[in-house]
Each structure stands twice: as C-alpha cells, then as structure tokens.
Amino acid sequence: MDQAEKKRKLILGGALIATLAAVALVEEEEEDVVATGIVENVQPAKTASNSRDRARNQESGPELLDVGKLGQRKFSPLAGELFASTTWAPKQPQVSLEEQIALAEQAKKAAPPPAPTAPPLQFKYSGKAITDNETWVFLTQSGEHHITKVGGKINNQYRLDSINDSTVTVTYLPLNIKQTLTINNKIAGTFR
Hints:
The protein has 192 residues and is an alpha+beta fold. Helix content is 30%, strand content 22%. It has a 4-stranded antiparallel sheet, with no helix packed on it. It has a 3-stranded antiparallel sheet with strand order 1-2-3, with no helix packed on it. The chain is elongated.
C-alpha cells in the first residue's frame, strides 16, 4: 500500500469511530431522560369562574393567562357574512330589462354597418366557343341564357374579365368586386 491509501483508510476509520461514539452518547441521553422521568404530563388549565379566582390564579401561577386582559369582540350584524367571497371589482348597478333593451338598440345604431359584398354567383357554365381568336362563353342564370366574350357585360351588373380551362373570372360592377366561377368540363361540353 502506498502512503495516500493508508492516509485515506485512517481518515475513514476515524470518521466511523466518531459516528459510533455519537450514536452511543445519544442513546445514553434518551435512556437517562426516560429513567429520571423528565417527561411530564401537561394538565389542561382550569378556567376561573369569577374575578377572585382569577386573581388567586395569577398570584399562584405565572404561567396562566388572564383572559380578561384580552380585548372582547362585540357582534355587529352590519359586519357582513364571515365566509363571503371578496372581489375587488366595482359592483355594477342593477339595470332593468327596458334599460338593457335600450342599450342594445343604441349599440346597434352606433355599430358601423357591415361592408357591402357581392351576391353569390348564380351563373352556371354551359360551354365556350372560340372563333377568330375570340372566346365566347355560354352561361345560364335562372333559365336565362347569356353569351358574352372577354370584356362583355351580362345584365349590366357583371363584366367577363377572363376565361381559362378551369375558371371564368367576372367583376360585379356595382361594387367592383371580382368573382370566380369554376368550370367543370365533365358536365359542360366545349365547342371549337
């Protein structure tokens, strides 16, 4: 064994002996306490029935407390409920039903009207024809047939802007809003 290992074993051995000695001393103290009867039973204090008994108890035993010196609480019915929940938010005044209706009407009047939108497209694609580099589109609306080309108007409310193989783009003229109609080539035929 080298010097470092011997030193380590001596330190560990010394620590073990010190621990065992401390345990033995603690056990001896516990046995002495139990043998000598230091542990005492605590008796509840008896309450004095009048002021003379209280004065006698104060003179005979300093460990008793005179309850009369403590402040007495008085009950007040205005104190409120003991276990009531507390909130820091201010209370809202009670509003009658008529006032609520009037407030709702005022709010409706004060709110800005919704932004106007174009009605949904009521057109159905029937087909298209290409002649002299112009594409004509056939549309149906409520049993009424319309034929127009790019730039043409339908009922003075819509303008045909563009057409390709999958969509037709029109503009709702009163609001200048673009809308798209999807073409389903399986339903409608194409004329060339």
